[in-house]
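Quick one: structure tokens for this chain, please?
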Amino acid sequence: MSNLCSDQLRIEYGWAVKVTLIRQQQVNGIYFAVILQTCLGNTMPAERKKSANMDEKESLLNNKEKEFVERRPVSTREKPKDDVKVGVKRETVKVPEDKKKKLDEDKRKKEDKERKKKEEDKVKAEEEQKKKEEEEKKKHEEEEKKKQEEEVKRQQEEAAAQLKEKEEAHQLHQEAWERHQARKELRSKNQNAPDNRPEENFFSRLDSSLKKNTAFVKKLKTITEQQRDSLSHDFNSLNLSKYIAEAVASIVEAKLKISDVNCAVHLCSLFHQRYADF
């Protein structure tokens, strides 16, 4: 584009130089004719005709020059202004295009950012929902497991309680049966005591100490089930033949509890089986 404008300017400049040279030659010819006419004082018709023809030619050249100037698309003085206008216009067009492009780019980035944020929010919401469902499922499973464990524990406790109750009932039944058997045996022994009492020489081997016998008789006033074994041991080692009345009096004076009655019955049976005076 720049080369084309330079060529056009060179062509126009060449034409302008040619026109200027032609006009200068015409002017010089006219001056020469005027000077010659002045000097001669008379002008020939042919010379006047020639002068008129030269004037016509000068006018024609002026018209052609004017027409040429008017026909030119752009003058050498106007061309830079138009080029500046076009440049400014192009810059003006370019600026909105860049601005529009930047706005479109910003809009696209904003949309991408919003879309990405929505996707992230969606993924986050899905993950939270999944996590919540898993927690609820886990909690439900733990509750079910806990219920099952509690049910198993309850069943085991019930089974253990039933077994314990059964064992206790069996134990109570066994103890009752043993007590019943002991009473039967004790009754039998008491009934057969006269035939089974020891001989007189048996008492000679026992301890007849006054101190020990007196202490034993005093213990009979406070008979308890816890003393059963110790009282039985002392009774077996002592000769209480002279202390039967005191022993009976102590047993009668004893303040017995229900739990101590069996111990008292046991001691009375021992006295009855060994001493006929009891």
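Residues 41-51, 74-81 have pLDDT under 50 and may be disordered.
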